[in-house]
Amino acid sequence: MPGKGKHRRPRTNPITRGFVAAGTGGAAIAIPLIGATGAHAAEQSSAPSAASGRAVAAAHSTATAQTAQKAATARTVRTYSVTAGDYLAKIAEKQKVRGGWQKLYADNREAVGDNPSLIHPGLKLTIGAKAKAKASAEDKAEAAPKKAAPKKAAPAKPAPAEPAPKADTTANEPAAQSADSGYTAPVDGATVTTPYRAAGGSWASGYHTGVDFAAASGTTVKAVGPGTVVSAGWAGSYGNEVVIQHDDGQYSQYGHLSSLSVSAGQRVSGGDQIGLSGSTGNSTGPHLHFEIRTGPSYGSDVDPVAYLREHGVSL
Fold first, then answer.
1. Nearest Cα to 179, choosing from 314, 308, 312?
2. In terms of C-beta density within 10 A (0-12 exposed, 13-18 middle, 19 or more buried), how is residue 20 classed?
3. How far apart are CA 200 and CA 145, in angstroms?
4. Among residues 208, 246, 256, 287, which one is catalytic?
5. CA 226 to each of CA 93, 189, 231: distance values in angstroms, whole numbers, following the listed order
6. Using CA atoms, how far apart are residues 231 and 266, in angstroms rounded to an integer?
7. Residue 291 pLDDT class (50, 70, 90 cuts)
8. Domain 78-140, what fold?
9. Would you say the pTM of this structure is higher than 0.90?
């Protein structure tokens, strides 16, 4: 029997207490730990899968971009077959080649050879491929960071250069020159190989608009009379040409030159060297194409031999 006045503390069920402990302490600690461990494990399990998915997506994107680039290149690159009467400047203009005939020649130099004027019907020219490759290289070069160039000390101011002496052309005076008029034949010998207005399909107008003089490549070409250079440079089918307005109002034109010795605005006299003969432009071989015109442009031609004879030049 228990003592009077004393209360015995009732014994609690250890299972119930353990449950309470678990419910008040153990569960509060254990449950989050179990949950965190599970979440961490899930995250670790899903991370490789996500990385793998990103890698696959990136590879797919790269493959798609490469396929699109190949398709775009295939659409851009094309082959052109040269036909009779074609020349590089004409083809470049017709095919809208960025960079003109020089770019077209550079892209096809292996097929054309060392002379850009000598192309033949049936020759296959590639348009667009190498130009695109070069553009990509240029884009990469522009994207690369540029290094600042080191500063250089300012160079000493050079003494003013003395004007170059005028070339002596008296040694090349042709026998056909007229001392009275100041006019001369454009090349020594002046042998006509194709006359004025010769008919044929080789010329866009249906006839020869000037005369062709026999001239090996590098032969000195001279102004036929006093005047002012109107233009000097590339002129399509004429290749390198010079056009001179003479004091009598007429114009002389010299085509297929291999090099030029004058520039626009320059004053010349009869017998002055203006360039060297060649085979540039639409030409089958070295010679000088010579015209006399009433204006500076194509289509205003008159008989060049008759003009020279009127000025005292014997041909």
1. 312
2. middle
3. 58
4. 287
5. 35, 20, 15
6. 9
7. very high
8. Membrane-bound Lytic Murein Transglycosylase D; Chain A (3.10.350)
9. no
pLDDT digits (tens, 9 = 90+) for 129-160: 654 445 445 555 554 545 555 555 555 555 44
- The span from the CA of 12 to the CA of 1, in Å, is 20
pLDDT at residue 182 tops 70: yes
User: Is 287 part of the annotated catalytic residue set?
Assistant: yes
Domain-wise residue ranges, the chain: 46-75, 78-140, 178-310
What's the CA gap between 111 and 254, in Å, rounded? 29
| Percent of the chain predicted with pLDDT > 70 | 56
3-state class of 160 per DSSP? Answer: coil
CATH architecture entry for 178-310: Distorted Sandwich (2.70)
- For residue 218, the SS3 value is coil
Calpha distance 303→112 (Å, rounded): 35
pLDDT at 230: 95
The token duo for 56 is 């696959």
Amino acid at 73: T
